[in-house]
């Protein structure tokens, strides 16, 4: 891989620190994301993944460190966070002037026919699709995703992961994907980072052909390596 220059980077963070009272959660974390690159962020529960994502999203003014994230970013959380008093299309259109972009985004996630529905009328998977449409309508150069598929049932999660792959191929956005799911990281990401004791402790390139599948050659080896990096021992 050619060395990355600063101009290739869409996200650059250096020495990110955050403590809550006496507890230091991030202790000088460094992170780069290149244009169009999907980076998974893993780590034990409470290791600070969401804290780092929130900082990059500009949602935590108390953090310190140097970080640049383009203004044109969008965030998707585990919960859809749709406004219940706005119809689907108006949720997608929040802060976006161009209505065509909103209609197109809704069509891209397969929900053109639900534009006039209320959020309460949607399934969990559909609501999360709308959350992605809302993000897409902003034409982001980077998506910040905090376990966006974590609350979905296994089948819906698989469909959403496939949708994410198609959207990424079409739009070329970069993404930071916080996930607990090793398989998800290896299906979707170009690199997998492991956050441990406040720093990025490992950076694993995922050099697998697309479309990827858990039974494809090379997948199992990478899964084992990533589990090792996460400190999960192999079954005896
Ligand atoms: N607003 C807050 N006030 C106090 N402590 C907080 C706050 N936000 C996060 N923390 C603490 O910071 C640590 C990291 O939390 P964070 O949610 O970033 O971890 P995580 O890696 O995303 O965890 P999980 O995988 O369980 O979602 C935890 O110990 C958490 O309790």
Automatic annotation (TrEMBL):
Q: Does the keyword Manganese apply?
A: no
One annotated GO molecular function is:
ATP binding
What are the alphabetically sorted keywords of the record?
ATP-binding, Cell membrane, Membrane, Nucleotide-binding, Translocase, Transport
In terms of SUPFAM superfamilies, this protein maps to: P-loop containing nucleoside triphosphate hydrolases
User: PROSITE patterns given for it?
Assistant: ABC_TRANSPORTER_1 (PS00211), ABC_TRANSPORTER_2 (PS50893)
Q: Which InterPro entries match?
A: AAA+_ATPase, ABC_transporter-like_ATP-bd, ABC_transporter-like_CS, ABC_transporter_ATP-bind, P-loop_NTPase
In this chain the ABC transporter domain maps to: 11-222
Q: Which domain of life is it from?
A: Bacteria
The UniProt entry, under Gene3D superfamilies, shows: P-loop containing nucleotide triphosphate hydrolases
**What is the protein's name according to its record?**
ABC transporter ATP-binding protein
Organism equals: Paractinoplanes pyxinae
